[in-house]
Amino acid sequence: MEIEGYFSTSVIFESHGVTTELLSDFQHLGLLEFHAEYGTAYIHQSSVSTLEKMIRVQHELTLNADEFLLVFPLILKIQELQAENQRLRIGLVS
Description:
Layout: E1 6-8, H1 9-16, H2 20-28, E2 34-37, E3 40-44, H3 48-61, H4 65-93
Antiparallel strand pairs: 1-3, 2-3
């Protein structure tokens, strides 16, 4: 069954080679929110890019849940600051 604006987590399992445990950990840590419908878990399309980043970090660093909870927000903050720095540089050049 398809729900408009949502992706089935089973598709994510297959395409990224992750386990249900990993996604459950992300949800338990409050990093993601899933929607259950007809016995299937779905994630909103606006959260897919964040989930993909989380999966990449998990695969690259092999962190346990507690370590991930500490590291991932820092990575997001670094990316936010880099984007802001880039915007300021563009503003100075223009």
